[in-house]
Amino acid sequence: MNIFYVLLVMLFLFTGFCRADIYVVTHRDNPVQALSHDQLRDLYLARSQSLPNGEGATIYESGEADLRARFILSALSMRERQFDAYWARLVFAGRVLPLKTVDQESELMSHLSNNTHAIGYTDGLPESDSVKTLLVINE
Amino acid sequence: MILSLPIKSSLFRLMTSGCRDCARYVCLVNISFLCAVPLAYGQTESGIQFSGFATLGVSSENKDDLGFLRDGTQSKDPSRNTSFFPDSTIGGQLSFAFADDWRATSQLVYRDRPRYKLDESLELAFLGYRPTSGLDIRLGRVAVDMFQLSDFRRVDYANLWVRPPTEVYGWILPVSIDGGDVAYGFSKDTGFWRFKLQYGDSKPILEFPDGSELVEANFNDFVAATLTFDVDVWRVRVSYSQATPSASPLAFLGTLYDVGDLVTGPVGEEATALADAFSDASGAKVRYSQASLGYDDGDWIIDTEFTYITTTGAIIPTGTAGYLSAGRRMGAFTPYAFYSRFFTDQELYESNVDWSQSGFEVLRDAAIASLNGVQIEQHTQALGVRWDIATKVAFKAQWEQTHIEAGKFAAWAHTNDRASSSTTVNLFSFAVNLVF
To answer: In angstroms, what CA-CA distances link B83 with B75, B91, B141?
Structure first.
C-alpha cells in the first residue's frame, strides 16, 4: 500500500513537471528585457503596436493548433474562436494588418533572428542562443 | 431611402470637395501602390498580405409580396421569398506594410447590389500612418464607423448572428466614405480607451422599395466622433455622427409646384405643401447618437445597443432603434436570442383633400408614397445557433419573427399596396461564414 501512495505522489509530481509552459521570446539584442502579462495582452489584442520602450513590435502567432489555443486561453483569457472573431473585426475594418502566422518553431526562430523587434511564443524553452525569453506563461 | 435635393455651394463646400477629391486620389494611389509593389520587389516576401471573408447564406420568408433585405443598398424584389442574395458575400483584402509606420489596405467586396461597378465594390482603399504608438491616421476610402458594428458589418464570421439586427443596421446606407479618420488609443490600468474622429463623403446607390428605379444618393460632410472603452470582459461605446444626405431631384417635383401654382383651393395648397416637404429636405442634416454595452467572458456573450436618429428635415427614417442579444457558448455551439426594435417618431403623411376632380391623384399618391416610403416601425424576436465547425469557419441557423406596422415597411422590398396594412413575417436563415 505504501508503494502505491509513493507511486501516486510521483505521478502527480511527474504530471506537474510535464506541464508545458509557454515562452514568449524575442531577439537576444532586443533592448526590452521582459514583458508583463498586460503588455503581452495589449500586443496580441492590437491595442498597442509598440514595445515598452516605444519601438515598434512585429508579433507572430503559432500555426500549431494546440499551442495557439493554449496561448490564447492562458495569455489572453479568451477562447480561440472568440479571438478569431475579435481579429476578424479589426482586420476587415481596416484597423490593423492581419496577424503573421508561423507554422513551425524553426520558422519563428528564423524571423526572430532577422528582426530584433519580432516577438513570438514557443512550447518550450528555446534552444537557440539568438533569442531570449521575455515572459513565461504558466498554464 | 433618402430623398432630398442637391444643396449649397459655399466656400466650405469647395474646401470639403477638395478634401473628397484628395481622398479619391489616395484611393487610386493605394490601388496602384498595392499592384506595383509586388512587381517592384519581385517576390511575395515584400509584406503584402492577402486575407478575406465569405458567407454563403440563404434566407426564406413567408410573405409573397415582401422581399427580405439585409440592408437598403441591396437590389429590391418584393416577390423574392427564398434567396441566396441578401446574405451571400465574398470579400478580398490586400494589405501592405512599408517604412515601419505606413500601410496600404484595399478591400473588394462582391455582394448583392442594385448595380455592379468596380468603384462601388471597392469598400476600402486607404493609406494608414502611425506616427507614434496609439495614433493612427488613415486617408482614402475608409469604413464608416457610425455604430458598434458598422465598420465590419459584412464580416458575418465576426458576429454571433446570421447578420446584425436589421432594425439598427438595415437602414444605414453608407458602407465607406471617401475622406479619412484619426484614432488614438491607449491602455490605462487594465482598461483600453480609444477616441476616433472621422470625416468624408459617401455615394450609396439604392433602389425604390419595389425595385423600379435606381437612386444615386449622397452622404455629404459625414462626421463621426467615437469613444470606446474596453475593460476586462466589458466593452462600452458611445458615438455621435451627422451627415447631409441628398439625392437627385424627383421627376415629379416641378409638376407638384406647377399644380400648386395653377390649381386654386385645397388641392393647390396641398400640392405646394407636398413639394415643400421635398424642398425642405435640401441641405437638411441627419444626426445619429449611439450607445452600446457588450459583455463577453468566454461563456456568455451579451450585447445591447441603442441609437437615436433625428433630422432637421431630411426624408429619412428617424426615431429610436436598438437591440438586446444574449448567447451562451457550449463547446462548439452557441445558442442565442435577440430582440430588436425600431420606434419611429414620425407620423404617416395622409391627404386630407379630395383630388379626384383635379386629375392629379396619381401625382399626389406618388409624392405621398415617396414621403412615407422611408418610414420604419418594426420589431423582431429571434432564436438561433452558431456552430463553429472548424477554425475560422462557422455555420449559423436563425429564426426571426418580425412584426411590421402599417405603412412603415422601408426595411423590406415592397409595393405601395402591401404597405397599407401591418403584418408579421417569419424569416428562416442559414449561413456558412469563414475568414481566411
So the answer is: 12, 19, 30
Query: How far does CA B201 lie from the centroid of its chain?
Result: 14
- State the smallest CA–CA distance between residue A75 and chain B in angstroms: 13
The domain locations on chain B are 9-435
Alpha-carbon torsion, ordered B21, B25, B27, B30, to 10 deg: -160
Q: Look up residue B117 and give its amino acid.
A: K
Q: For an interface test with A, which of B391, B395, B434 has the most A Cβ atoms less than 10 Å from its Cβ?
A: B391
* Chain segment B87-113, per-residue pLDDT in tens: 999 999 999 998 888 999 999 999 999
Answer for the pair B290, B238: CB distance below 8 angstroms, yes or no: yes
Q: How far apart are CA B319 and CA B45, in angstroms?
A: 51
Chain A residues near any Cβ of chain B (below 8 Å): 38, 42, 45, 47-50, 54, 56, 65, 77-82, 84-86, 88-89, 91-95, 97-98, 100
β-sheet bridge partners, residue B1: none
- What is the secondary structure of A56-69 as a DSSP string? B-EEEEE--HHHHH
Put simply, the answer to whether A79 touches B329 (Cβ < 8 Å) is yes
ipTM, two decimals, is 0.87
CA distance A132 to A28: 5
For B9-435, CATH number out of 2.40.160.10, 3.40.190.10, 1.20.140.10, 1.10.10.10 equals 2.40.160.10
Yes or no, beta carbons of B53 and A92 under 8 Å apart: yes
pLDDT band at B214 (very low <50, low <70, confident <90, very high): confident
Would the CB atoms of B138 and A94 count as touching at under 8 Å?
Answer: yes
- For residue A5, pLDDT over 50 is answered with yes
